[in-house]
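Researcher: Re-running this chain for the archive, since the previous output was lost when a drive failed. Same request as before.
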Amino acid sequence: MRYLRLLVALVVVLSVVPGPGAADVSGEPELDAAFTDNTVTPGEETRLELQLINRGDVDSGSTRNPQLADRVTTARGLTATVQDDDVPIDVRAGTKAVGTLPEGSAPPLSVPITVDEDATPGTYTVDVDVRYTYTSQIDDNDGDETQRTVSRTVPVTLEIEDDASFDVVAVDSAVRVDSTETVALTVENGGSAAATDLALALESPSADLTVGEGASATRAVGTLDPGERTTVEYEVAATATAGSGNYATTLTAEYEADGVSRVADETVALAPEPQQEFDVTNATSIVAVDDTGTVTVELRNAGPLTVDDAEVRLESTSEQLSFQGSESATRFVGSWAPNETQTVTYDVSATEDAEPRDYTLSATVAYRDGDGDTATAPSRSLGVRPAPEQTFAVSNTSATLAVGEEGDLRGTVTNTGERSVGNAVVQFTSESGTVTAIETEAPVGTLAPGESANFAVPLEVASSAEAGLKQFSVAVQYRNADDQQQQSDTFDVRADVGPDTDAFGLDVTGASVPAGDSTQLEVEVTNTGNEVYTGISAKLFAEDPLSTGDDEAFVSQLEPGESETVVFNVGAGSGALVKTYPLSMDFQYDDADGDTITSDTYRLPVDVTNDSEGGDDGGLPVLPLAVAALVVVAIGLYAYRRG
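Model: Regenerated C-alpha coordinates:
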Protein backbone atom coordinates (compact mmCIF):
# COMPACT_ATOMS: atom_id res chain seq x y z
CA MET A 1 0.00 0.00 0.00
CA ARG A 2 2.88 2.26 0.89
CA TYR A 3 4.54 1.59 -2.50
CA LEU A 4 1.32 2.45 -4.29
CA ARG A 5 1.20 5.84 -2.63
CA LEU A 6 4.80 6.57 -3.66
CA LEU A 7 4.07 5.65 -7.29
CA VAL A 8 1.08 7.97 -7.40
CA ALA A 9 3.13 10.79 -5.91
CA LEU A 10 5.88 10.28 -8.52
CA VAL A 11 3.36 10.44 -11.32
CA VAL A 12 1.96 13.65 -9.94
CA VAL A 13 5.43 15.19 -9.69
CA LEU A 14 6.37 14.18 -13.23
CA SER A 15 3.18 15.65 -14.55
CA VAL A 16 4.00 18.96 -12.88
CA VAL A 17 7.75 19.22 -13.93
CA PRO A 18 8.12 20.27 -17.59
CA GLY A 19 9.99 17.71 -19.89
CA PRO A 20 13.11 18.40 -21.96
CA GLY A 21 11.23 18.94 -25.20
CA ALA A 22 9.53 21.86 -23.70
CA ALA A 23 12.61 23.42 -22.06
CA ASP A 24 15.77 22.58 -24.27
CA VAL A 25 16.93 23.50 -27.83
CA SER A 26 18.48 20.70 -29.95
CA GLY A 27 19.55 20.37 -33.57
CA GLU A 28 22.50 19.79 -35.92
CA PRO A 29 24.21 21.10 -39.07
CA GLU A 30 23.23 19.45 -42.35
CA LEU A 31 26.17 19.70 -44.84
CA ASP A 32 26.08 19.27 -48.60
CA ALA A 33 28.88 19.83 -51.16
CA ALA A 34 29.14 20.50 -54.89
CA PHE A 35 31.72 21.53 -57.49
CA THR A 36 30.80 24.90 -58.99
CA ASP A 37 32.02 23.52 -62.37
CA ASN A 38 32.14 19.75 -62.23
CA THR A 39 33.15 19.13 -65.85
CA VAL A 40 36.72 18.00 -66.62
CA THR A 41 38.49 16.19 -69.46
CA PRO A 42 41.02 13.35 -69.54
CA GLY A 43 44.57 14.47 -68.88
CA GLU A 44 43.47 17.89 -67.72
CA GLU A 45 45.23 19.67 -64.89
CA THR A 46 42.82 22.08 -63.24
CA ARG A 47 41.39 23.41 -60.01
CA LEU A 48 37.92 22.42 -58.86
CA GLU A 49 35.97 24.93 -56.81
CA LEU A 50 34.31 23.03 -53.93
CA GLN A 51 31.22 24.70 -52.46
CA LEU A 52 30.18 23.60 -48.91
CA ILE A 53 26.55 24.32 -47.94
CA ASN A 54 25.07 24.12 -44.41
CA ARG A 55 21.35 23.48 -44.30
CA GLY A 56 21.13 23.34 -40.49
CA ASP A 57 18.21 21.46 -38.84
CA VAL A 58 16.63 22.36 -35.47
CA ASP A 59 15.10 19.23 -33.95
CA SER A 60 13.26 20.80 -31.03
CA GLY A 61 13.35 23.66 -28.63
CA SER A 62 12.03 27.04 -27.76
CA THR A 63 11.25 29.42 -30.49
CA ARG A 64 11.54 32.28 -28.02
CA ASN A 65 15.37 32.49 -28.52
CA PRO A 66 16.47 32.23 -32.21
CA GLN A 67 20.08 32.68 -31.19
CA LEU A 68 20.01 29.31 -29.50
CA ALA A 69 18.72 27.77 -32.71
CA ASP A 70 21.64 29.24 -34.71
CA ARG A 71 24.13 27.79 -32.27
CA VAL A 72 22.89 24.24 -32.64
CA THR A 73 23.01 24.47 -36.46
CA THR A 74 26.50 25.96 -36.79
CA ALA A 75 29.49 23.75 -37.72
CA ARG A 76 32.67 24.83 -35.97
CA GLY A 77 36.25 23.83 -36.78
CA LEU A 78 35.04 22.55 -40.12
CA THR A 79 37.58 20.79 -42.38
CA ALA A 80 37.09 19.12 -45.73
CA THR A 81 39.19 16.48 -47.51
CA VAL A 82 38.51 15.54 -51.14
CA GLN A 83 39.20 11.84 -51.69
CA ASP A 84 40.42 10.40 -55.01
CA ASP A 85 39.84 6.73 -54.28
CA ASP A 86 38.00 4.79 -56.95
CA VAL A 87 37.86 7.82 -59.30
CA PRO A 88 40.28 8.57 -62.20
CA ILE A 89 41.63 11.74 -60.69
CA ASP A 90 44.58 12.70 -58.56
CA VAL A 91 43.82 15.27 -55.89
CA ARG A 92 46.93 17.39 -55.27
CA ALA A 93 45.74 18.98 -52.03
CA GLY A 94 45.42 17.95 -48.40
CA THR A 95 42.75 18.78 -45.90
CA LYS A 96 41.22 22.21 -46.34
CA ALA A 97 40.23 24.24 -43.26
CA VAL A 98 36.94 26.13 -43.48
CA GLY A 99 36.44 27.23 -39.88
CA THR A 100 32.96 28.15 -38.68
CA LEU A 101 30.09 27.58 -41.05
CA PRO A 102 26.66 28.77 -39.88
CA GLU A 103 23.55 27.93 -41.82
CA GLY A 104 24.23 28.95 -45.43
CA SER A 105 27.31 28.42 -47.63
CA ALA A 106 31.05 28.93 -47.32
CA PRO A 107 33.37 30.54 -49.87
CA PRO A 108 34.51 27.98 -52.50
CA LEU A 109 37.59 25.92 -51.74
CA SER A 110 40.13 25.59 -54.59
CA VAL A 111 41.15 21.97 -55.04
CA PRO A 112 43.92 21.22 -57.59
CA ILE A 113 43.45 17.93 -59.43
CA THR A 114 44.87 16.02 -62.36
CA VAL A 115 42.55 13.88 -64.44
CA ASP A 116 44.00 10.58 -65.59
CA GLU A 117 44.90 10.70 -69.27
CA ASP A 118 43.13 7.41 -69.87
CA ALA A 119 40.07 8.33 -67.82
CA THR A 120 36.86 6.99 -69.29
CA PRO A 121 34.34 9.73 -69.92
CA GLY A 122 31.31 9.51 -67.60
CA THR A 123 29.79 10.57 -64.26
CA TYR A 124 31.77 9.87 -61.08
CA THR A 125 31.05 10.35 -57.39
CA VAL A 126 33.84 11.98 -55.44
CA ASP A 127 33.75 11.63 -51.64
CA VAL A 128 34.40 14.67 -49.55
CA ASP A 129 35.19 13.88 -45.92
CA VAL A 130 34.05 16.61 -43.56
CA ARG A 131 34.74 16.90 -39.85
CA TYR A 132 33.30 19.51 -37.51
CA THR A 133 32.07 20.17 -34.00
CA TYR A 134 28.63 21.52 -33.10
CA THR A 135 26.35 22.08 -30.09
CA SER A 136 23.70 19.41 -30.18
CA GLN A 137 21.57 20.64 -27.23
CA ILE A 138 21.20 23.75 -25.08
CA ASP A 139 19.29 23.84 -21.77
CA ASP A 140 16.96 26.77 -22.00
CA ASN A 141 16.91 27.15 -18.21
CA ASP A 142 20.54 26.99 -17.17
CA GLY A 143 22.29 27.30 -20.57
CA ASP A 144 24.14 24.02 -20.31
CA GLU A 145 25.37 22.80 -23.76
CA THR A 146 26.03 19.40 -25.18
CA GLN A 147 28.90 19.27 -27.70
CA ARG A 148 29.40 16.70 -30.46
CA THR A 149 32.14 16.07 -33.05
CA VAL A 150 31.05 14.55 -36.31
CA SER A 151 32.97 13.00 -39.24
CA ARG A 152 30.98 12.15 -42.30
CA THR A 153 31.32 11.77 -46.07
CA VAL A 154 29.53 14.02 -48.50
CA PRO A 155 29.23 12.75 -52.10
CA VAL A 156 30.00 15.14 -54.96
CA THR A 157 29.30 14.54 -58.63
CA LEU A 158 32.14 14.90 -61.21
CA GLU A 159 31.63 14.74 -64.97
CA ILE A 160 34.52 13.58 -67.22
CA GLU A 161 33.75 14.50 -70.80
CA ASP A 162 35.23 13.37 -74.09
CA ASP A 163 38.22 15.56 -75.07
CA ALA A 164 41.48 15.61 -76.91
CA SER A 165 44.68 15.54 -74.90
CA PHE A 166 48.17 16.30 -76.03
CA ASP A 167 51.40 14.61 -75.08
CA VAL A 168 54.86 15.58 -76.29
CA VAL A 169 56.20 12.12 -77.07
CA ALA A 170 59.52 13.16 -78.67
CA VAL A 171 61.79 16.20 -78.61
CA ASP A 172 64.46 16.50 -81.31
CA SER A 173 66.58 19.37 -80.06
CA ALA A 174 70.22 20.25 -80.61
CA VAL A 175 70.12 23.91 -79.69
CA ARG A 176 73.65 25.16 -79.21
CA VAL A 177 74.79 28.14 -77.22
CA ASP A 178 75.10 31.24 -79.39
CA SER A 179 73.35 29.64 -82.36
CA THR A 180 69.94 29.12 -83.90
CA GLU A 181 68.69 25.58 -84.40
CA THR A 182 65.50 23.77 -85.40
CA VAL A 183 63.60 22.08 -82.56
CA ALA A 184 61.13 19.37 -83.61
CA LEU A 185 58.34 18.37 -81.20
CA THR A 186 56.24 15.26 -81.83
CA VAL A 187 52.78 15.65 -80.28
CA GLU A 188 50.18 12.88 -79.86
CA ASN A 189 46.44 13.27 -79.28
CA GLY A 190 45.99 10.91 -76.33
CA GLY A 191 42.38 11.89 -75.76
CA SER A 192 39.09 10.40 -76.86
CA ALA A 193 37.98 13.24 -79.13
CA ALA A 194 39.39 14.70 -82.29
CA ALA A 195 41.01 18.13 -82.04
CA THR A 196 40.05 20.46 -84.86
CA ASP A 197 41.51 23.88 -85.76
CA LEU A 198 44.52 22.83 -83.69
CA ALA A 199 47.33 25.37 -83.25
CA LEU A 200 50.44 24.62 -81.20
CA ALA A 201 52.40 27.55 -79.77
CA LEU A 202 55.84 27.17 -78.17
CA GLU A 203 56.79 29.91 -75.73
CA SER A 204 59.97 30.60 -73.77
CA PRO A 205 59.95 32.91 -70.76
CA SER A 206 63.75 33.32 -70.82
CA ALA A 207 65.62 35.99 -72.76
CA ASP A 208 68.51 33.53 -73.21
CA LEU A 209 66.29 31.15 -75.19
CA THR A 210 64.04 32.65 -77.82
CA VAL A 211 61.55 31.06 -80.19
CA GLY A 212 61.25 32.38 -83.72
CA GLU A 213 61.88 36.10 -83.74
CA GLY A 214 60.60 36.66 -80.22
CA ALA A 215 59.32 34.86 -77.15
CA SER A 216 56.95 32.49 -78.96
CA ALA A 217 55.96 31.01 -82.30
CA THR A 218 52.78 29.22 -83.43
CA ARG A 219 52.30 26.36 -85.88
CA ALA A 220 48.88 25.50 -87.40
CA VAL A 221 48.14 21.76 -87.41
CA GLY A 222 44.48 21.46 -88.36
CA THR A 223 42.78 18.23 -87.23
CA LEU A 224 44.45 15.65 -85.00
CA ASP A 225 42.44 12.49 -84.36
CA PRO A 226 42.70 10.40 -81.19
CA GLY A 227 45.95 8.41 -81.22
CA GLU A 228 47.32 10.45 -84.14
CA ARG A 229 50.72 12.18 -83.99
CA THR A 230 52.13 15.29 -85.62
CA THR A 231 55.58 16.89 -85.64
CA VAL A 232 56.00 20.64 -85.48
CA GLU A 233 59.25 22.56 -85.88
CA TYR A 234 60.39 25.82 -84.31
CA GLU A 235 63.50 27.94 -84.80
CA VAL A 236 65.02 28.29 -81.33
CA ALA A 237 67.99 30.54 -80.61
CA ALA A 238 70.25 30.33 -77.56
CA THR A 239 72.30 33.40 -76.69
CA ALA A 240 76.01 33.36 -75.95
CA THR A 241 75.17 33.73 -72.25
CA ALA A 242 72.75 30.79 -72.18
CA GLY A 243 73.56 28.09 -69.66
CA SER A 244 73.74 24.38 -70.41
CA GLY A 245 70.87 23.41 -68.04
CA ASN A 246 67.21 22.85 -68.83
CA TYR A 247 65.00 25.76 -69.84
CA ALA A 248 61.26 25.29 -69.26
CA THR A 249 59.18 26.20 -72.28
CA THR A 250 55.41 25.93 -72.63
CA LEU A 251 53.59 24.21 -75.47
CA THR A 252 50.05 25.57 -75.66
CA ALA A 253 47.37 23.78 -77.69
CA GLU A 254 44.35 25.79 -78.81
CA TYR A 255 41.66 23.67 -80.47
CA GLU A 256 38.02 22.65 -80.62
CA ALA A 257 36.66 19.34 -79.33
CA ASP A 258 33.00 18.46 -79.86
CA GLY A 259 32.39 22.05 -80.87
CA VAL A 260 33.84 23.51 -77.68
CA SER A 261 36.94 25.74 -77.77
CA ARG A 262 39.62 24.54 -75.39
CA VAL A 263 43.17 25.33 -74.34
CA ALA A 264 45.74 22.90 -72.96
CA ASP A 265 49.33 23.48 -71.82
CA GLU A 266 52.33 21.24 -71.38
CA THR A 267 55.82 22.04 -70.19
CA VAL A 268 58.71 21.12 -72.50
CA ALA A 269 62.29 21.18 -71.24
CA LEU A 270 64.98 22.34 -73.67
CA ALA A 271 68.66 22.15 -72.76
CA PRO A 272 71.19 24.11 -74.88
CA GLU A 273 74.22 22.06 -75.77
CA PRO A 274 77.84 23.30 -75.66
CA GLN A 275 78.51 25.63 -78.56
CA GLN A 276 80.54 24.66 -81.58
CA GLU A 277 83.95 26.31 -81.46
CA PHE A 278 86.92 26.96 -83.75
CA ASP A 279 90.37 28.07 -82.61
CA VAL A 280 92.99 30.15 -84.43
CA THR A 281 96.18 28.12 -84.20
CA ASN A 282 98.41 30.32 -86.36
CA ALA A 283 98.31 33.54 -88.38
CA THR A 284 100.93 35.06 -90.67
CA SER A 285 100.90 38.16 -92.83
CA ILE A 286 102.95 39.51 -95.71
CA VAL A 287 101.96 43.13 -96.15
CA ALA A 288 103.62 46.52 -95.77
CA VAL A 289 102.35 50.02 -95.19
CA ASP A 290 100.90 51.49 -98.40
CA ASP A 291 101.09 48.07 -100.01
CA THR A 292 99.07 44.94 -100.64
CA GLY A 293 99.82 41.44 -99.47
CA THR A 294 98.23 38.42 -97.85
CA VAL A 295 97.05 37.18 -94.46
CA THR A 296 97.08 33.42 -93.89
CA VAL A 297 95.03 32.01 -91.00
CA GLU A 298 95.14 28.45 -89.67
CA LEU A 299 92.06 27.31 -87.71
CA ARG A 300 91.15 24.09 -85.87
CA ASN A 301 87.67 22.66 -85.42
CA ALA A 302 87.52 22.45 -81.61
CA GLY A 303 84.31 20.42 -81.79
CA PRO A 304 82.11 18.86 -80.89
CA LEU A 305 80.49 18.66 -84.35
CA THR A 306 81.51 17.76 -87.86
CA VAL A 307 80.20 20.69 -89.87
CA ASP A 308 79.39 21.20 -93.55
CA ASP A 309 79.45 24.20 -95.90
CA ALA A 310 81.81 25.99 -93.53
CA GLU A 311 82.89 29.53 -94.43
CA VAL A 312 85.55 31.55 -92.64
CA ARG A 313 84.90 35.30 -92.53
CA LEU A 314 87.83 37.58 -91.69
CA GLU A 315 86.91 41.11 -90.63
CA SER A 316 89.05 44.17 -89.95
CA THR A 317 88.21 46.67 -87.25
CA SER A 318 90.43 49.41 -88.72
CA GLU A 319 90.09 51.53 -91.86
CA GLN A 320 93.87 51.28 -92.33
CA LEU A 321 93.65 47.55 -93.05
CA SER A 322 91.13 46.25 -95.58
CA PHE A 323 90.40 43.41 -97.93
CA GLN A 324 90.61 44.99 -101.39
CA GLY A 325 88.66 47.98 -100.11
CA SER A 326 86.13 45.96 -98.08
CA GLU A 327 86.05 45.55 -94.32
CA SER A 328 85.73 41.76 -94.59
CA ALA A 329 86.34 38.77 -96.85
CA THR A 330 85.07 35.18 -96.82
CA ARG A 331 86.67 31.90 -97.85
CA PHE A 332 84.77 28.62 -98.35
CA VAL A 333 86.09 25.55 -96.54
CA GLY A 334 83.32 22.94 -96.83
CA SER A 335 83.21 19.86 -94.60
CA TRP A 336 85.23 20.15 -91.40
CA ALA A 337 85.73 17.39 -88.84
CA PRO A 338 86.60 17.88 -85.15
CA ASN A 339 90.34 18.50 -84.54
CA GLU A 340 90.85 19.02 -88.28
CA THR A 341 92.89 22.08 -89.28
CA GLN A 342 92.08 24.30 -92.25
CA THR A 343 94.22 27.09 -93.75
CA VAL A 344 92.71 30.08 -95.53
CA THR A 345 94.48 33.00 -97.23
CA TYR A 346 93.14 36.50 -97.89
CA ASP A 347 94.39 39.43 -99.97
CA VAL A 348 94.88 42.41 -97.68
CA SER A 349 95.84 46.07 -98.19
CA ALA A 350 97.42 48.54 -95.79
CA THR A 351 96.83 52.22 -96.52
CA GLU A 352 99.51 54.85 -96.54
CA ASP A 353 98.14 56.01 -93.17
CA ALA A 354 98.76 52.61 -91.61
CA GLU A 355 101.51 52.11 -89.08
CA PRO A 356 103.87 49.19 -88.41
CA ARG A 357 101.87 48.04 -85.35
CA ASP A 358 99.42 45.28 -84.50
CA TYR A 359 95.94 45.54 -86.00
CA THR A 360 93.11 43.31 -84.76
CA LEU A 361 91.20 41.03 -87.11
CA SER A 362 88.33 38.70 -86.15
CA ALA A 363 87.76 35.26 -87.69
CA THR A 364 84.21 33.86 -87.65
CA VAL A 365 83.09 30.45 -88.92
CA ALA A 366 79.55 29.97 -90.26
CA TYR A 367 78.43 26.41 -90.96
CA ARG A 368 75.63 23.85 -91.24
CA ASP A 369 75.25 21.15 -88.62
CA GLY A 370 74.15 17.56 -89.11
CA ASP A 371 70.49 18.61 -89.18
CA GLY A 372 71.12 21.15 -91.92
CA ASP A 373 70.65 24.11 -89.57
CA THR A 374 72.85 27.15 -90.08
CA ALA A 375 74.87 28.46 -87.17
CA THR A 376 77.79 30.76 -86.41
CA ALA A 377 80.58 29.93 -84.00
CA PRO A 378 82.06 32.54 -81.64
CA SER A 379 84.58 34.87 -83.27
CA ARG A 380 88.29 34.56 -82.60
CA SER A 381 90.75 37.48 -82.70
CA LEU A 382 94.16 37.60 -84.34
CA GLY A 383 96.74 40.30 -84.95
CA VAL A 384 98.39 41.56 -88.14
CA ARG A 385 101.42 43.87 -88.09
CA PRO A 386 102.24 45.60 -91.41
CA ALA A 387 105.91 45.96 -92.24
CA PRO A 388 107.31 49.48 -92.67
CA GLU A 389 106.59 51.10 -96.02
CA GLN A 390 108.84 50.10 -98.91
CA THR A 391 110.94 53.11 -99.91
CA PHE A 392 113.53 54.02 -102.56
CA ALA A 393 115.91 56.87 -103.24
CA VAL A 394 116.95 58.26 -106.63
CA SER A 395 120.29 60.08 -106.85
CA ASN A 396 123.11 61.06 -109.24
CA THR A 397 120.74 62.09 -111.99
CA SER A 398 122.17 63.42 -115.25
CA ALA A 399 121.20 63.50 -118.90
CA THR A 400 122.70 63.38 -122.39
CA LEU A 401 119.83 65.34 -123.86
CA ALA A 402 119.73 68.14 -126.43
CA VAL A 403 116.98 69.86 -128.34
CA GLY A 404 116.01 67.82 -131.36
CA GLU A 405 118.15 64.90 -130.23
CA GLU A 406 117.82 61.55 -128.54
CA GLY A 407 119.61 60.88 -125.30
CA ASP A 408 119.36 59.25 -121.88
CA LEU A 409 118.14 60.29 -118.48
CA ARG A 410 120.55 58.60 -116.09
CA GLY A 411 120.64 58.07 -112.35
CA THR A 412 121.02 55.68 -109.44
CA VAL A 413 118.12 53.99 -107.58
CA THR A 414 118.65 52.64 -104.03
CA ASN A 415 116.40 50.29 -102.04
CA THR A 416 116.02 52.17 -98.73
CA GLY A 417 113.39 49.73 -97.40
CA GLU A 418 113.77 46.78 -95.03
CA ARG A 419 113.14 43.96 -97.48
CA SER A 420 114.25 42.84 -100.92
CA VAL A 421 112.26 43.67 -104.02
CA GLY A 422 112.31 41.77 -107.29
CA ASN A 423 112.00 42.66 -110.95
CA ALA A 424 112.45 46.35 -110.19
CA VAL A 425 112.25 48.82 -113.06
CA VAL A 426 112.57 52.59 -113.13
CA GLN A 427 109.56 54.04 -114.93
CA PHE A 428 109.54 57.40 -116.71
CA THR A 429 106.20 58.94 -115.64
CA SER A 430 106.50 62.52 -116.93
CA GLU A 431 103.93 63.78 -119.38
CA SER A 432 105.38 66.40 -121.74
CA GLY A 433 104.68 67.50 -125.25
CA THR A 434 108.36 68.04 -126.00
CA VAL A 435 110.05 65.11 -124.25
CA THR A 436 109.04 61.57 -125.16
CA ALA A 437 110.24 58.34 -123.64
CA ILE A 438 111.60 56.01 -126.28
CA GLU A 439 111.43 53.27 -123.64
CA THR A 440 109.33 54.03 -120.55
CA GLU A 441 111.10 51.49 -118.33
CA ALA A 442 114.69 50.79 -117.36
CA PRO A 443 115.07 47.41 -115.61
CA VAL A 444 117.35 47.27 -112.58
CA GLY A 445 116.50 43.74 -111.34
CA THR A 446 116.44 42.57 -107.71
CA LEU A 447 117.46 45.05 -105.04
CA ALA A 448 118.31 43.94 -101.53
CA PRO A 449 117.89 46.40 -98.65
CA GLY A 450 120.50 49.15 -99.11
CA GLU A 451 121.48 47.96 -102.60
CA SER A 452 121.79 50.43 -105.50
CA ALA A 453 121.69 50.14 -109.28
CA ASN A 454 122.22 52.57 -112.13
CA PHE A 455 119.57 53.20 -114.74
CA ALA A 456 119.25 54.97 -118.08
CA VAL A 457 115.91 55.89 -119.65
CA PRO A 458 116.15 56.70 -123.40
CA LEU A 459 114.34 59.93 -124.28
CA GLU A 460 113.80 62.06 -127.37
CA VAL A 461 113.62 65.84 -127.16
CA ALA A 462 111.52 67.58 -129.78
CA SER A 463 113.10 70.29 -131.93
CA SER A 464 110.44 72.68 -130.60
CA ALA A 465 111.72 72.27 -127.05
CA GLU A 466 113.79 74.88 -125.31
CA ALA A 467 117.18 74.14 -123.83
CA GLY A 468 117.77 74.44 -120.10
CA LEU A 469 117.14 72.72 -116.77
CA LYS A 470 114.16 70.39 -116.94
CA GLN A 471 112.22 68.47 -114.26
CA PHE A 472 111.22 64.89 -114.89
CA SER A 473 109.25 62.30 -112.89
CA VAL A 474 110.24 58.69 -112.32
CA ALA A 475 108.89 55.88 -110.12
CA VAL A 476 110.03 52.40 -109.18
CA GLN A 477 107.84 49.46 -110.10
CA TYR A 478 108.66 46.21 -108.33
CA ARG A 479 107.34 42.92 -106.99
CA ASN A 480 106.86 42.68 -103.25
CA ALA A 481 107.48 39.70 -100.97
CA ASP A 482 104.12 38.23 -101.99
CA ASP A 483 105.14 38.48 -105.68
CA GLN A 484 102.54 41.18 -106.27
CA GLN A 485 103.43 44.09 -108.52
CA GLN A 486 103.63 47.45 -106.76
CA GLN A 487 104.76 50.97 -107.59
CA SER A 488 106.58 53.45 -105.38
CA ASP A 489 105.87 57.11 -104.93
CA THR A 490 106.97 59.41 -107.75
CA PHE A 491 110.39 61.06 -107.62
CA ASP A 492 111.00 64.47 -109.20
CA VAL A 493 114.49 64.71 -110.76
CA ARG A 494 116.21 67.48 -112.71
CA ALA A 495 118.55 67.35 -115.71
CA ASP A 496 119.89 69.76 -118.33
CA VAL A 497 118.68 69.69 -121.92
CA GLY A 498 121.35 71.12 -124.24
CA PRO A 499 120.69 73.41 -127.20
CA ASP A 500 119.97 72.09 -130.64
CA THR A 501 123.26 70.91 -132.27
CA ASP A 502 123.94 69.45 -135.66
CA ALA A 503 125.25 65.92 -135.76
CA PHE A 504 127.75 66.99 -138.40
CA GLY A 505 129.81 70.04 -139.14
CA LEU A 506 130.40 70.86 -142.86
CA ASP A 507 133.33 72.73 -144.45
CA VAL A 508 132.95 73.30 -148.21
CA THR A 509 135.83 73.64 -150.71
CA GLY A 510 135.33 74.67 -154.44
CA ALA A 511 131.92 76.21 -153.88
CA SER A 512 131.81 78.09 -157.22
CA VAL A 513 131.02 76.99 -160.73
CA PRO A 514 131.01 78.95 -164.04
CA ALA A 515 127.68 79.17 -165.84
CA GLY A 516 127.47 76.37 -168.41
CA ASP A 517 130.28 74.44 -166.68
CA SER A 518 130.80 71.99 -163.79
CA THR A 519 133.18 71.54 -160.86
CA GLN A 520 134.07 69.21 -158.02
CA LEU A 521 132.53 70.18 -154.69
CA GLU A 522 134.55 68.99 -151.72
CA VAL A 523 132.72 68.82 -148.35
CA GLU A 524 134.61 68.08 -145.15
CA VAL A 525 132.20 66.23 -142.79
CA THR A 526 132.97 66.34 -139.03
CA ASN A 527 131.22 64.31 -136.28
CA THR A 528 130.15 67.06 -133.84
CA GLY A 529 128.25 64.64 -131.56
CA ASN A 530 129.42 62.75 -128.48
CA GLU A 531 129.12 59.24 -129.82
CA VAL A 532 130.38 57.17 -132.73
CA TYR A 533 128.38 57.33 -135.98
CA THR A 534 128.57 54.45 -138.46
CA GLY A 535 127.21 53.70 -141.95
CA ILE A 536 127.05 57.39 -142.85
CA SER A 537 125.34 57.99 -146.20
CA ALA A 538 125.50 61.56 -147.53
CA LYS A 539 123.14 62.78 -150.26
CA LEU A 540 123.29 66.04 -152.20
CA PHE A 541 120.17 67.70 -153.65
CA ALA A 542 120.31 70.37 -156.40
CA GLU A 543 117.65 72.46 -158.10
CA ASP A 544 117.69 74.17 -161.51
CA PRO A 545 119.92 75.82 -162.68
CA LEU A 546 122.26 73.67 -160.56
CA SER A 547 122.60 69.96 -161.13
CA THR A 548 124.65 67.10 -159.79
CA GLY A 549 125.79 64.09 -161.65
CA ASP A 550 127.10 62.35 -158.54
CA ASP A 551 124.87 63.09 -155.55
CA GLU A 552 125.81 60.37 -152.99
CA ALA A 553 128.82 59.65 -150.80
CA PHE A 554 129.52 57.15 -148.00
CA VAL A 555 131.63 57.23 -144.84
CA SER A 556 131.89 54.03 -142.83
CA GLN A 557 132.53 55.55 -139.40
CA LEU A 558 133.27 58.80 -137.64
CA GLU A 559 134.44 59.08 -134.07
CA PRO A 560 133.36 62.17 -132.11
CA GLY A 561 135.36 65.10 -133.55
CA GLU A 562 136.67 63.04 -136.51
CA SER A 563 136.38 64.45 -140.08
CA GLU A 564 136.36 63.05 -143.59
CA THR A 565 135.98 64.71 -147.01
CA VAL A 566 133.38 63.65 -149.51
CA VAL A 567 133.36 64.86 -153.16
CA PHE A 568 130.40 65.63 -155.45
CA ASN A 569 130.25 66.82 -159.10
CA VAL A 570 128.15 70.00 -159.44
CA GLY A 571 127.23 71.79 -162.69
CA ALA A 572 125.51 75.09 -163.59
CA GLY A 573 123.34 75.68 -166.63
CA SER A 574 124.51 78.11 -169.32
CA GLY A 575 121.61 80.40 -168.58
CA ALA A 576 122.38 80.58 -164.89
CA LEU A 577 122.70 84.04 -163.47
CA VAL A 578 125.84 85.07 -161.71
CA LYS A 579 124.82 84.75 -158.07
CA THR A 580 124.80 82.32 -155.12
CA TYR A 581 122.53 79.30 -155.30
CA PRO A 582 121.75 76.79 -152.50
CA LEU A 583 122.41 73.08 -152.44
CA SER A 584 120.75 70.74 -149.90
CA MET A 585 122.47 67.89 -148.15
CA ASP A 586 121.44 65.35 -145.45
CA PHE A 587 122.82 62.22 -143.84
CA GLN A 588 121.45 58.84 -142.80
CA TYR A 589 123.53 57.03 -140.20
CA ASP A 590 123.51 54.63 -137.25
CA ASP A 591 124.11 55.92 -133.73
CA ALA A 592 125.88 54.12 -130.89
CA ASP A 593 122.67 52.25 -129.98
CA GLY A 594 122.36 50.91 -133.52
CA ASP A 595 119.38 53.12 -134.32
CA THR A 596 119.23 54.46 -137.90
CA ILE A 597 118.76 58.22 -137.90
CA THR A 598 118.15 60.72 -140.67
CA SER A 599 119.82 64.05 -139.97
CA ASP A 600 118.48 67.52 -140.46
CA THR A 601 118.97 69.07 -143.91
CA TYR A 602 122.06 71.20 -144.37
CA ARG A 603 122.24 74.17 -146.83
CA LEU A 604 125.40 74.66 -148.90
CA PRO A 605 125.96 77.93 -150.87
CA VAL A 606 127.36 77.62 -154.44
CA ASP A 607 128.43 80.69 -156.43
CA VAL A 608 127.69 80.74 -160.19
CA THR A 609 130.25 82.88 -162.01
CA ASN A 610 130.44 84.38 -165.52
CA ASP A 611 131.43 81.76 -168.04
CA SER A 612 134.54 83.92 -168.98
CA GLU A 613 135.69 84.15 -165.42
CA GLY A 614 138.44 81.73 -164.72
CA GLY A 615 138.78 80.90 -168.55
CA ASP A 616 142.08 80.88 -170.59
CA ASP A 617 141.18 83.61 -173.24
CA GLY A 618 144.34 85.90 -172.99
CA GLY A 619 142.59 88.49 -170.85
CA LEU A 620 143.92 89.59 -167.52
CA PRO A 621 142.48 87.92 -164.58
CA VAL A 622 140.36 90.17 -162.47
CA LEU A 623 141.72 89.12 -159.10
CA PRO A 624 145.45 89.71 -159.91
CA LEU A 625 144.66 93.14 -161.40
CA ALA A 626 142.74 94.08 -158.30
CA VAL A 627 145.63 92.99 -156.12
CA ALA A 628 148.12 94.98 -158.28
CA ALA A 629 145.94 98.06 -158.07
CA LEU A 630 145.85 97.77 -154.29
CA VAL A 631 149.66 97.45 -154.21
CA VAL A 632 150.10 100.59 -156.36
CA VAL A 633 147.71 102.53 -154.14
CA ALA A 634 149.54 101.38 -151.05
CA ILE A 635 152.98 102.42 -152.50
CA GLY A 636 151.65 105.82 -153.47
CA LEU A 637 150.23 106.43 -149.98
CA TYR A 638 153.54 105.43 -148.43
CA ALA A 639 155.52 107.78 -150.71
CA TYR A 640 153.09 110.61 -149.96
CA ARG A 641 153.49 110.21 -146.20
CA ARG A 642 157.27 110.03 -146.49
CA GLY A 643 157.35 113.27 -148.48
